[in-house]
Amino acid sequence: MGFFIAQLLTGLANAAALFLVASGLSLIFGVTRIVNFAHGSFYMLGAYVGITLMGVLPGVLGPYLGFWGAIVLTGLIVGLAGALVEIVVLRPIYRAPELFQLVATFGVILVIQDLALMVWGAEDQMGPRAPGLRGVFRIFGEPIPKYDIVLICITPFILLALWALIAKTRLGVLVRAATQDREMVAALGVNQRWLFTGVFALGSALAGWGGALQLPKGGADLLMDFNIIGPLFVVTVIGGMGSLPGAFIAAVLISVLNVFGVAYLPQSTLVLMFVVMAIVLIVRPYGLLGKEEVAGEHGQSGAPETPIRPFGRRGRLAVAGLLLVMALLPLVTQPFALVLLTDIVIFALFAASLQFILGTGGLVSFGHAAFYGGGAYAAALMVTYAKTPMEIAFLFAPLGAGMLALVIGWFCIRLSGVYFAMLTLAFSQLVWSLVFQWRAVTRGDDGLIDIWPSAWLSGTVPYYYFTLVVGVLGILFLRTVIHAPFGYALRAGRDSARQAEAMGIDVKRVQYVAFALAGALAGLAGGLFVFAKGSVFPTELEIGKSFDALIVVFLGGVKTLSGGIVGATFMAAVEDWLTRLHYWRLLLGLLIIAVVILAPEGIVGSARRLGLRLGLVKHTEAD
Amino acid sequence: MTGANPAHGNRGPGPANRRDDHMNILRSLIAAATAVTVLSAPAFAEDPIKIGDINHYKRMAAFAEPYRKGIELAVAEVNAEGGVLGRPLEFVFPDDQGDPGEAVKIAEDLMTREGTVMFTGAILSNVGIALSSFAKEKNYLYLAGEPLADTLVWKSGNPNTFRLRVSTWVQAAMLAEQAAKTDAKTYATIAPNYSYGTEAVEAFKANLKRLKPDVEFVDEQWPALFKIDAAAEVQAIEKAKPDAIFNVTFGADLAKFVREGTDRGLFDGRGVYSMLTGEPEYLEPLGEEAPEGWYVTGYPWYDLPDGPGKDFVAAYETATGETPKMGSLVGYTMAKSVAAAIQKAGATDTASLIKAFEGLEVPSTPVGPLEYRAIDHQSTLGAYVGTLAVKDGKGVMVDWEYKNPVPYMPSDDEIRAMRPAN
């Protein structure tokens, strides 16, 4: 009994910081519809700023006021930083396509990571102790740290204060109104700009407070921004995006379950919360307290889309010319350029497969790496265990990934919008942990090695040609599908599911098939990857890999297939160039932010618009 | 803090130059923002011999920065004494972001365009394994400095890969030997849930069971790396009531585990055997909360007797203004090994270098003479083991000793059976 209660209390204490940070993310999403990847960075900033202030303030204000004053002040400072980011980075791009802002927040992550490294150094820092709260209380004979009890007592008050702010104040009324229908709020004359800035600042401040409050139980390190992102999204989604009480319930649920998971299923720590999220989303597609998303409302802003058309004659000639140049390149260039180009073609195919489902299908997948890595592993497993020749093992990459997509898609396709994205994320995490933990078969993170191509393809030049042919055929295949009747049906379902249904299109089935196709082509890219590198590790299945693809698709331009390809080329080339420098993350982050602000429709979309304005491209050219 | 990598200015003529123009603009930008330390080397008539160290300089900054400074110190010393084969030695430091695929791409870049003669690096074992497989396929030479995985030189060992640091198996065996001397019968283990953690626990169990067959392992905890729920872990271990604990967590996980465990009295009256905890990277952040009485592997740089070890500490402090970390020692020793190998080979082609590394003796390193064993390409760098204590508000290792790794390794026959036929 005592042990049970002690565990429950531990879970509740852990929930405190998680709830604070998640409520900030939820608020920001509810009002601005921004999926803020950088929220973890504000949490990390909170921890570092907190440590710094706790080193200074107690000397001035005495230990008690100094400690708690430092926590309060930390939130305010991080809130200011949040407001700054909103004004400088996000404000110029609110009218960009749906979810485009997440690219900008990714840039912010990189910038904050390097700034934190410059300011606070590389070494981990222990959090200061809360004054007067060292030691434990004995509850049923079990030791419970005093600070845990304080955290458990504070959390309901924070929830209450936030609830009062939202329910009782004018700001709260505006926030709720904007969460429901922000166009209407704007039409009623509310200054949306400052409302968004205010909410973003409040959300960031909550993240900062979360970071500062957890200090006596942990500390500050440079990895904590990424490490909290997973639990954060899980809590927000289980609770229902935009719902504060939902975030509270979900934070408690996840934290308590985690504590019991550690006691009774110690191996489960990698996936438990993603399993819970998948179950919740399958049973309640909009989270525990979330509301169904109204079709068309979700962040749809900006100019209406012009229907895409196949390239005109000039465009086709240009592409053909480019391909010719690429085919002749080995005659003139040195080997490394070919290695880099091989990587770029593989990445472009991966990005194009995501663009297909995301841009054409309107299904934002946050877990596309499951199919890329899945394809790589399918081929690698065949080579390792069946000694399959490369030519046959390679076919298993798209095949295996396609099958995987059929399974995952069956669960995910019934959802839409952010909830669809989160369920794909959960499933990709499940695949990752399966590969990671099933060491007997996959060798865990020691990976599968010595997966090299057959003799006739080994060597840089032959493999470059192989990749070029397979990659180009894959992309051409996607292009054909997009401009075939199937592609029209898919786009119809994206633009108006109801009208498409009325015309006799089985929207869900079309989406399901498209999802499987996208998975198979991502797997194809994975197959090319594994034979290019000779090894595969669970890193190819990580969330970060999915985000890489997501970011280049948005960066390139979400509306046309060429967006993914251009974005991938741009990113791979820039990374290859920047990572040789010491503070490359800062530079890359700034570069991404600059591109996002200058080209809010992605590189391709904005280049096209510029061309239109300068008269270089004509509206009719595409016909 | 070092600025942009000085090596990038030295590219020869050729297609790379166009890229240099871009780099120059950026470089001057960075130079404005940070202090650029340029190693002062004597004037050499000849082109430098280049080595590429591929690493996760940002993702694992706490270990990688001192490691890089260690390399730079060694390179400066080598060049002050006239370089190798009459040419200056030069390291370049590309960042692979901790991604094995990226690391392989960079290795290819280094060997085909950058003109390096071999490559070194990696902290994460999976990156090291990827580089090792790549080196074998393309017949390059790879020296792994830091990766601990046993498989790198044993089950997946290959002729093109050498490794400096003492592996997981050996460190766990040293701790198990000490644990076997006590009366403790029941053990709990806690390790991060990835290869290094699992390997360490397996090695500790195997060695302890061999020395003391009646021990029992009553609980195993597997927190996700850097995502530990320390309070829950401590409660779960406490529930199993073990006599002693084997810990493999490190970094931020370790700090949280130590704090919760101390608060809740988990370590009272229990022996704790802990991997890497005595390394300054992980011990210094704990400050006065360093867990006293733990038996750990680490690096007691503050307590070394007169000799090469102490000289290295002094030189490092003079050069960098910081105290050395474990990474500093590894980076320094690795760069010195590379210099010795090139000198012995008398050439810089891969075949000669591999031949030179097999059985290579490096006479004067901070830990004394080293050898790269011909049988498994593992160096004989050992490990410091000792007990943690708190002095002047800081954690230190006391009653420590430096242990030669060879007695803790599997027998030569076992190694031959494990290694794929060369």
Automatic annotation (TrEMBL), chain A:
GO terms for biological process: amino acid transport. Signal peptide: none annotated. It comes from the Bacteria. The chain crosses the membrane at residues 12-35, 42-61, 67-90, 102-122, 149-166, 194-216, 271-289, 317-338, 344-364, 392-411, 418-438, 463-490, 510-531, 551-574, 586-607. It is found in: Cell membrane. One of its GO terms (molecular function) is branched-chain amino acid transmembrane transporter activity. Its main location: membrane. Keywords: Amino-acid transport, Cell membrane, Membrane, Transmembrane, Transmembrane helix, Transport. The keyword Membrane applies. It is a multi-pass membrane protein. The keyword DNA damage does not apply. InterPro entries: ABC_transp_permease, BCAA_transport_permease, LivM-like. Pfam families: BPD_transp_2 (PF02653). GO terms for cellular component: plasma membrane. Belongs to the binding-protein-dependent transport system permease family. LivHM subfamily. This is ABC transporter permease. It comes from Paenirhodobacter ferrireducens.
